[in-house]
Write a structure and sequence with these properties.
The chain is of the alpha/beta class. The chain has helices at residues 88-98, 109-114, 183-188, 204-207, 214-224, 246-258, and strands at residues 20-26, 29-34, 37-41, 75-78, 101-105, 120-123, 136-139, 159-164, 167-171, 193-197, 229-232, 265-266, 273-275. Helix 2 links the parallel strand 5 and strand 6 (120-123). The protein is globular.
Length: 276
């Protein structure tokens, strides 16, 4: 891992007539622009993914979209409470600037209230938000939660299905491989775009119960029957021992093994947008 990988921040691509514009900010942060409002997933803008945004792991790539270039955020979709997904300095900035609704899994409201949010909705797996104008349903994931030494698994973790003008975007959250992926299309219908983690997976004997490797990510893509998937959770924070470019190389190999079409499961550059 190099100390710093240069990133030239971009402006998010306007949605226009598309159902959604999906922009990769970095790690698991995506800006999803829809006609009903803008969603930001697991927002992390701090230089470190640790307590107070100051302690390791250090950020190797800056966000692909500058914070001040974000449009007004209607909904923050927060998958769980780990520091590389639930960053209090970033969340406080969003609460002060936009006062968005936060949709999250059970047990996370206490930490979110500390960040200054006035509107928080906790969901169990398969529950649909009753407060968001944008359709959002919590989906299962195989992971764990903790922010201190004494709160392990006191809060739930999840992914989300997000609706946009008849299209559906599946944000898998932070997850190991699980057969529960097969239930997503069975319960919630077609996945037009999957956002699936591909990084932070070595060594396997230790990480296989919390993070997928690229081959398992491809299997998750097949299980949810996504028309197209984009990889995330790579190249931003060195959380594990694989090289910075290993997830991208392994993803290409895994796609070839199962015979996916070119571009069916790929990645976006940091700051790049995709129109759905």
């Amino acid at each position: 891992w190099p100390a710093i990988v240069p990133v030239a921040p971009r402006l998010p691509t306007p949605r226009g007539d598309a159902a959604a514009s999906v922009t990769f900010v970095g790690h698991s942060t995506f800006l999803i622009q829809t006609a009903l409002g803008n969603v930001l997933t697991d927002p992390v803008y701090s230089s470190h993914a640790g307590p107070f945004g100051r302690f390791d792991p250090r950020r190797a790539r800056a966000p692909g979209v500058a914070f001040d270039d974000l449009p007004v955020i209607s909904v923050v979709a927060l998958s769980h409470n780990h520091y590389d997904h639930c960053d209090l300095p970033t969340l406080r900035r969003l609460a002060e600037r936009d006062d968005p609704l936060v949709v999250t899994a059970l047990g996370n409201s206490r930490v979110l209230r500390r960040a200054g949010f006035s509107r928080i909705e906790e969901l169990d797996w398969w529950e649909r938000s009753a407060l968001s104008a944008i359709p959002i349903t919590a989906t299962p994931a195989r992971h764990f939660s903790s922010r201190t030494l004494i709160d392990r698994n006191r809060a739930l973790w999840c992914g989300f299905m997000i609706g946009a003008a008849g299209r559906q975007i599946y944000f898998a959250g932070d997850t190991a491989y699980t057969p529960l992926f097969r239930e997503v299309p069975a319960r919630l219908g077609r996945v037009d775009l999957g956002l699936i983690p591909i990084g932070a997976y070595e060594p396997r004997w230790f990480m296989k119960v919390v993070h997928m490797d690229p081959a398992e990510a491809v299997q998750a893509h097949v299980d949810v029957r996504a028309a197209r998937s984009i990889g995330m959770h790579f190249g931003t924070f060195q959380l594990t021992s694989e090289a910075i470019d290993a997830p991208l190389e392994a993803l290409g190999a895994a796609c070839a093994v199962v015979g996916l079409r070119p571009g069916e499961f790929s990645t976006l550059d940091f700051g790049e947008s995709l129109l759905l």
